Amino acid sequence: MLAITGIGTLVTNDASLERGKLGLVKDAALVVGDDNKIAWTGESINLPREFANNAIHVGGRAIIPGFVDSHTHLVFGGDRATEFEARMSGKTYTAGGIRTTMAATRASTNDVLVANARRLASEALHTGTTTLETKSGYGLSVLDETRSLQVATSITSETTFLGAHVVPPESTIDEYVNLVCGEMLTQCAPNAKWIDVFCDHGAFDVDHAQAILSAGAHAGLGLRIHANQLQHGGGVQLGVEMGVASCDHCTHLSDADVSALADTKGKTVATLLPTAELCTRAKFPDARRLLDAGVTVALASDCNPGSSYTTSMPLVISLAVLNMNMTCDEALWSATAGGAAALRRTDIGALHVGAQADFALLNSPSHIHLAYRPGVKLVDAVVRQGKCVAGSLA
Ligand code: NIG
Ligand code: FE
Asked: Per the structure, how many domains does the chain have?
């Protein structure tokens, strides 16, 4: 049992409290039960006496649900600092850089890949991320995709097979799509919950993406898609037609794409990845356009060595508010409950009674500071499944 009192602002994301979408409670307390789930939330003044005696007082700081980062690529070797430097001198980002990381990943031992993925997962945890999804996609051979997914399972249960990231240099596109849909999928599916395709310029077209997602669905995997990042195309429409959990990037959207996403009524989430726009010097998508149309929006880091080498969800929230027309409340919801929706989870991303006790203690009186103080370390402690796993609650 863990009881916390003196919480300046508690964000529960519990709409049933009738305190807005964030379910905000001021001067709050919360209790975690012995099952490591949320047992009670409310105003400190109403904390039942049996919990009050051993409660930790956090002096008016805010508590928020742990971030759910529903889109990362943490299994890779090497880095692309040289490519980044060239881009900052005027070169354009293209999908082709993925092959540089493919070569470094193929040359890395499993131990090196595990150590790198764990380092990044730990970095994410210390900035408040309590659940993350991660993908294969830098192996691009049966052997290297299979071991990439084995590595992924060592850091999360939300694993995604992204054999269809780009075509490796040794194959034609048709040969490679057959391999992805055949032997590679067979070998990778046991360690994957999801399948994803990079449907964009320089990667896979809509027909190939449809074939790959259909094969993944047939193998029992959930569907997600990288769509409309580098240019406008049919990826979002395909994702909606196939009922994917999330269309990710959504940088270039037509009105028809926005309506198609809205018509799913939240079944297909639009996941925006503003640090990818930041690090590729691309135009930010307008989250307001999606939100005003009724689309469910998630925010994620896209952590990868090419387009977005950051694990920081607080930075993602800052950018969403400062550059994508989201309110502070919307951005926090999208980085927590929105990420959970993109993974079709209801047990995380919120602090309602019965939810997994995953939360972050901030060094500020409210969640507004996440956007208001860009780049500042604001996470004092992280609790995952009821245990303090980073920092200190004291
Ligand atoms: O989500 N868009 C495709 N994949 C990654 C980038 C991969 C890379 O450049 O290494 C992304 O941005
Ligand atoms: Fe990505």
From this structure: 2
